[in-house]
Amino acid sequence: RRAAEISAARAHNLLMVGPPGVGKTMIAERIPSILPPLSKEETLEVSAIHSITNSDRTPLSTIAPFISPHHSATRIAMVGGGAHAIKPGVCSLAHRGVLFIDEAPECGSGVLDSLRQPLESGAITISRINGNLTFPAKFILVLAANPCPCGKFAGKGLGCTCTSLQVRRYLNKLSGPLLDRIDLRVKVENVSRTELAESNNEDSQTIRNRVIAARAIAANRFKHEKWNLNSEIPPKALRQQYQPERQAMNFLHDELDKERITARGLHKIIRTSWTIADLNGKSRPTLEEVDEAYRLREGIE
To answer: Contact 111/103 with Cβ under 8 angstroms?
Structure first.
């Protein structure tokens, strides 16, 4: 729940790993309900994309789109294309919303890696003999995966029938370059009867109000910039005016020197720490926010 709230607050990509039935799909489906309504410009963008497909989305709807292709979808279905008329793929249909892929390791070879370009640039360019077309593709990528092929390698793992080699091969289908573009990687464990009884009854509207408040703080901070999301802060700005506190930066530099994170990972942790600081009502990320961002990013390692 915490990771989903952070993801919604500033469009951070999310990976959930856990056994079947723990609520991964339910959490992903609820993310649009805690996202702010689309602005007029965003609504027009989304409606224009959906108007050239067979989408059943209501025209001029202000609800963020939620697109969930089956894991058997092809690369063309994912990024777009076509033999005659070039049409957008599901990554463009999810523009300004959520692209959710369940059973992510079951996707065909190269399908998930085809999302690396839009995750970096926020757009997808399709080249054909008759020309090139560029579609917008700024979306929150949410992936869900079982911990192993049989799905029971969780908790004590007593019911798992997979070998250690099968488990490694299964999760290795999520390539390193793709995982490096995921901001939040969390394990979703089975909940006990006591935890269910004591669960927080907080509804989506309450969380949505916090998300809207956090976005308003960031919008005020970036009012003179060319971006308005923490997840879009350029690397140069992260190293200059948008650095966390010194103690937090020293911690990240130590992790970078020990090669526990990459340069891209460093930047993504800082961006996530700004989102956590906004949710916590702090004007600048401290070691506390950076540490939470680091643990959320390295959650499945």
So the answer is: no
